[in-house]
Amino acid sequence: MPDNQLPVAPTVVRLPRYTKTEQDEILGDGDDPFGVAAAGLTWLPKEEHFGIRHGDRLVAHAGLLRLPVAIGDTRTEVVGVGGVAVAPDMQGQGLARLVVTAALDHARTMGPQHALLFCRPLLVPLYQRLGWHPLDRDVLVEQPGTRLVTMPLRTMVTPLRDQAHWPSGPVRLFSLPM
């Protein structure tokens, strides 16, 4: 069996932390492991972490963070999903689905009605297969120095509750993006 094939069904575990070293373990130590450096954004670290190990190596991760947001005139919170990563040599085995599903299972216990993520356009079809929906409008996010900028990545949402409905209206995240 090749080294990058999982011999048994992978298990998602809750991680006590997620460091730069662990991110490098999954994605390598390149300057732009998520391919978003050109956006020039400052990102928030996640507070909850989920991962998949293959032997002693971390091969997948997803992180969560509660964030304040306004949708139209409605102020609420969302669970931000970010830091989703699968080691390049382990892609195509359903690890993203597993780690994101486990993270969303936990997100349902956190209170907000929706989860939100930002992704590169080429990943939109992956997230759509996982039940996420692209927003049809721009999202404003905070950046250092009290700057408010339009998120250049695609914003996607998914409900965390039955009957949850995403309100219409402009969207503003009252924090750095996750």
Summarize the structure.
It is built from three helices and ten strands; from the N terminus they run E-H-E-E-E-H-E-H-E-E-E-E-E. It is 15% helix and 37% strand.
Your description of this structure?
With 178 residues, this protein is of the alpha+beta class. The chain has three helices and ten strands; from the N terminus they run βαβββαβαβββββ. Strands 1, 2, 3, 4, 5, 6, 7, 8, 9 and 10 form a ten-stranded mixed sheet that branches. The protein starts with 11 loop residues before the first strand and ends in a 5-residue tail after the last strand.
Question: Could you tell me the radius of gyration in angstroms?
Answer: 16 Å
Strand tally: 10
**Form type:** globular
Low-pLDDT ranges: none
Sheet bearing the most strands, described?
A: 10 strands, mixed
State which percent range the strand residues make up: 35-45%
> Distance N terminus to C terminus?
37 Å
Structural class: alpha+beta
